[in-house]
Amino acid sequence: MDKLVELAELMFPEIKETIGDLEAKYPPRNLIPSAEVTRFAPSPTGYLHTGSLFTSLVSYSLAKSTKGVFFLRLEDTDTKREIKGAGEMLLRELKNFKIVPDEGYAGDDVDKGILGPYMQSRRAKIYKIVIKELVKKGLAYPCFCTPEELEEIREVQEASKQIPGYYGSYAKCRYLTPDEAINLVKSGKPYVVRFKSHGNHNNKIRVHDEIRGDIDIAENDIDVVILKSDGLPTYHFAHVVDDHFMGTTTVTRGEEWISSLPIHVEMFKALNWRLPKYAHLPLIQKLDNGNKRKLSKRKDPEAAVNFFFEQGYPVEGVLIYLMSIANSNFEQWTLENKSFDLSKFKFSLSKMSLDGALFDLNKLAYFAKEFLATLSAQEMSKRALEYANKYQPALADLIKRDEAYFTKIMNIERDKENPRKDYAKFSDIYPIVRFFYDDEYQKIIQNGYPFNPNIKRELIAQVLTDFIKSNDYSLNEADWFNSLKALGAKYGFAANRKDYKANPSQYVGMVSDVAEMLRIALTGNKNSPNLYYILHILSKETIENRIKKAIGVK
RNA sequence: GGUCCCAUGGUCAAGCGGUUCAAGACGCAACCCUCUCAAGGUUGAAUCACGGGUUCGAUUCCCGUUGGGAUCACCA
């Protein structure tokens, strides 16, 4: 028997299938030629990262805009860093952002689709089938080097300023004869499996990237580990095998992978498999002390999508913002189509920029405001309550007292051409609306009323007392405001700014001063939404009580 | 450090050798509107990193410099 075959059998006695069997089991998909099959392949090591969300949005959009397939694969081969439940959490968070895979991992015990399993930890056998053939062909070999030995090699290389890595004459185990390898395996010495590279570091290969064009890069000559001692594959190998059998047409991933492209290219070639298209996405960055850097989970709260949930940014706002980074023509498209509907936008890799965008919370807030302004008051209340129930009990408490009342508040100047844009996120609501609730109002005025000190308190009392007596709640907005002007005029306030400015000495103030005293009495604040609507949301009794209290009447 | 990627205003960016005073958006400033705020309107400040080429002509093409980023694991 061929010694290599003997070695392969010794290493993988339980494996009987061949690559041919796998090809038969996982035939190509039946899709139109232009359809792109993309995937998102996170590892379950924590919550969803904003950069990952960006990547999955791009992958998803590419598949959707070409009538292709978007699937989810869980890269759970790093058992040390794996966090329990992270896979399902990732899935949930993705779903929150309306990114629902067509197939793939759908929970730890569920798969959607027939090309699975979609959890790499459950694909160990598939990898071994491929590796067994590689060993037979002399394209992979067991490596018995210990971490200490590898460390030594690296030290030697560093000292002599050579490129670090397991390659050439440093790759000791590649020179083991099959018999030596067989004996070592038999002896029970732990080993990993390495891919035997035939590349030359001095040769350049050219790889096409869908968004960057051709990349010239040195051939790989390192014998990378493809199977770890725990029997699970490394990323490089799993990527090649999985994206082949799962029929990925375009691999979308962060640009940090460009440097390992030669490894992947060489393995695809060695296996005689068709190379997928690659699209290496720019990394979302963050300004830190004047320097750009990759958005980091540890340092940046907005790096975890949880941040957006906690703050109460609408998921659409986040998606819109991300898409505006992903495709430079998207923002213009929203303006022209007066729509934020991502599903109607034709996404294209060619419209992606090449360098990483700095994450801009300002612009996110802008889009979020614009989006929230398109919601109906009912929808707004519903979402606010969902948010508050989870993250802001104080707000939830207010809303639940009377949802119809809260919806009225949300409806202030909403149903018009230029709706108010007070809220970028649901957490903005509470401080703006709390004066509508009596107990909150009492808390606000504990610090006193910020009345204008230039207007005598007696005059304020007079005007507001008159207001209680004379206000007509049935008037429409314009008429009501005229009536307020008339009220002010009675006490020497100019009806408008021009009159006042023309003759400041003739007036005690102007109508805005009247509005201000009323506003302060009713809200405890100098700023608030349109008074007219406040007057129609608060009950008459509340209005009168608040005014009386403000001017010191029992 | 080696290798690779990138380089237009504070940010996101149009541009793809010759009408562009170098679009647009966010942010910023001013003004207008206005009962304050949030909006809305108008206007404004602000950019082609630098040096060489190529060319009749470079923001655009090439080279170099500089700067930023990524990567060099039995992690992905």
Question: Can you summarize this structure?
Answer:
With 554 residues, this protein is an alpha/beta fold. It contains 24 helices and 15 strands.
Kindly provide the radius of gyration, computed on alpha-carbon positions and rounded to a whole number of angstroms. Answer: 33 Å
Number of strands: 15
The average pLDDT is: 94
Give the count of structural domains.
4
- Sheet bearing the most strands, described? 4 strands, mixed
Q: Give the CATH level 1 class of the largest domain.
A: Alpha Beta
- In the CATH scheme, what's the topology name of the largest domain? Rossmann fold
**Helix/strand-derived class?**
alpha/beta
Strand arrangement in the largest pleated sheet: 1-2-3-4
Q: What is the CATH homologous superfamily assignment of the largest domain? A: HUPs
Low-confidence stretches: none
Morphology call: elongated
Kindly, what is the distance between the CA atoms of the first and last residues, rounded to a whole number of angstroms? Answer: 106 Å
What is the strand content? 5-15%
CATH-scheme architecture of the largest domain? 3-Layer(aba) Sandwich
- What is the percent of helical residues? 40-55%
Count the DSSP helices: 24
Could you explain the architecture of this structure?
The protein is of the alpha/beta class and 554 residues long. Helix 11 (315-326) crosses helix 13 (361-372) and helix 14 packs across helix 15. The strands form 6 sheets. The protein has a 4-stranded mixed β-sheet with strand order 1-2-3-4, covered by helices on one side. The protein has a 3-stranded antiparallel β-sheet with strand order 5-6-9. Helices cover 44% and strands 10% of the residues. The protein has 24 helices and 15 strands. Helix 4 (86-96) links the parallel strand 2 and strand 3. The model has no long low-confidence stretch (mean pLDDT 94). The radius of gyration is 33 Å and the shape is elongated. It binds one RNA strand of 76 nucleotides through strand 8, helix 8, strand 13, helix 12 and helix 13.
